[in-house]
Amino acid sequence: MKTPDSRFYCPLISVGTIVLDENESSHAVRVCRAANGDTLQLCDGLGHYADATITKADAKACEVHVDTVEEAPLKRPRLNLGIACLKDDALEEVVFHAAQTETDSVIFLRTDYSQEPKNSDLHKLVRRSELKALVSLKQSKKPWMTRIEGPIEFDKWLKDYQGDLILCDIDGERKLDLGLEENADGKCAAAPVTLLVGPEGGFSPREIEAIKAFKNGKVHLLNLGNTRLRARTAAIIALGKVL
Questions:
Q1: How confident is the model at residue 182 (pLDDT cuts 50, 70, 90)?
Q2: What is the CATH number assigned to the segment(s) 7-71?
Q3: With contact defined as beta carbons under 8 Å apart, do 148 and 105 qualify?
Q4: At a CB cut-off of 8 Å and minimum separation 6, what does 81 contact?
């Protein structure tokens, strides 16, 4: 039996016979050329996964059998990325890369200098970003799918948020030790941590002042280097420094 070098998304993994949706079935049978008796690695993006044996290699409705469902040994990540709405396809690009890392969610924030149409609900962008997150989940073989949230007004989000913040700032530290990893006993601090990245031109002075005055958690300043970065680049560099 062969196992395609990819995971296949199945939102409801359970012991027994499962029928994959048409997209996953086509990917398995047509793209990966999987056949009866081959093994597929299933994941639900919620910390569960399973090896499944193909019993009916149908490109529209592939049937598989699961003997055992396993749980991921690690808890859901605590790190989130809050990024200002950007123009063109920049947000999708950020999501595609960020969702390959142990990032719990990407939150689209409407800031003073955001570059998206103010009267748009960004519904299509959110949906496309969710699809990017799904692709990244399968490609990276991680147990938790990165959630997409927003768009939401920055002031409202900050008012309701409880947890620690990381702001990219030229006066910040080059390296932060946030203790995001689980301790030896499998436990870690419960408070979420959100990395904030502004739009091109950064957060407004008013927003920066509000972040630094935040009282519902700690505020960390992170220096990304001596050069000026595009917002989409800053987000990925910052994640690399924190994770």
A1: low
A2: 2.40.240.20
A3: yes
A4: 94, 98, 103, 105, 106, 107, 194, 195, 197, 235, 239
